[in-house]
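Protein record

Derive tokens from sequence
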Amino acid sequence: MITTSDPTHTSEGLTRFLDRIERVGNKLPHPFWLFSILFGVVAVTSAILAAAGVSVLDPATGDPSPVRNALSVDAIRELILGAEESFLTFGPLGTMMIIMLGLAVADRSGMLESLARHALGRVSPGYAVFTVCLAGALSKFLSYSAYVILIPLAAMVFKAVGRSPMLGMIVGFLSINAAGDANPFIAPGDVIFAKIATEAAQIVDPDTVVRPTDNTYFTTVSAVVLAIVLTVVTEKILAKREHELVPDSDAAGPTTGARAGAVPEETELRALRSTGVVAVLFLGLLVVGMIPAGSPLRGEHGAILDSTLFNSIALVLSLFFLVIGATYAYRTGRLTHSSDLPNFMADGIKSVAPLLVLFFAVSQFLALFQWTAISTVVAVRGAEFLRGLDAPVFLVLMLLIAGIAVLNLLITSGTALWALLAPVIIPMTMLIGASPATVMAVYRIADSCTNSITPMSATFVLTVGYLQTYRKKAGIGTLVSFTLPAALAMMVAWTALFALWYALGLPLGPGAPVH
């Protein structure tokens, strides 16, 4: 007799629940129309809130930030005039276009497919998942570039080991999004986070300095823990629905196009060895170029993290993929004429054309949301609620995780939300005994996981677009139904890890106590 506590019965019930989520979610309109509808909703809401005189103090400046009416004549004029700029300055757009110019050469040459096949052809599915999970956690220093590069590569890795490339995309997306803030490396984003935290902490103590390394110990351990959690969830839960992720018969994939015929394996291996030498030389030149303090690759006063190299990482990566892709194509005989190279690049741009349409709608909505100041009101009111609670420090930190995670469903830019919340929550928690570095660690947990389940995130829309290159009917529901269990599991696991860390009193980074 099967009872409700039977693991098989529970698993089947969860599968049916996720299937319902997918069916309901896929009944939502196309993301282009969804964001167009939300644009109208925000515009009407802004008119109502503006008429009611809703206003808050911007914690970053201390100035009043009233809700602005998007339906006024002046507002409509300003939004129309700014539409082009909103689209062209939309974060993922330029990064995606620049990266694709080089990545398309590496793909059209056959190098990526050959590399995945030779390097991962004998890897078991379990190790493939863990490899992608770790790669996602380690790649966040690439910013938006991580999504553009890793998601297609994750599809190739899964395909190489006989699994659904669509599941590979989803796991890649989850690993970057949820585990991305659990990065053992110091990324440019860490520098920005630390600067914002320092300014907020100095409201209470002018001598307080928060450093980019203050969460290093915690994020390094977190990267491994979250990779393991995501691997287990993928194999125990998501894999049970992998049969639903079958690409269309005519699917080409995000960067897969018509290539020249197959070449002998011996030629492939020689080409890969030559490509490896060129890759090492390219990276070596970058290292050598960073050595002189006055190098143009460095930033002001010889800065390394806040430097030309890291701030222009999309261009550097594009050149890297272009060089190694061209090397492989030449060595395999697929690059025979000078016009072949720009043709490869043009094919790469064509493959992401559907994403450009989505990005236009998303960019206009996010620009309106920010312009009306509704995003500021949401963040500030939420922070004020937390500040009004009189509770032990640990409980406040737990409530912060929950509250920020909810806000993050609406304001998906980690830096923007941190800039809004830090001046409120850091002084508040410092006054009750919490370290700014601890609050920054808590923010990382809350900021990461929920990005994987909200269509408000530009990278969520990007991933839906990638999935549609394999299956045209894939939609928001498809992605949410697979990301929801993984995001929740990682949120719980990461929060539990922090609770253990806090209880043991372990330092979060060099010279950064948790208490």
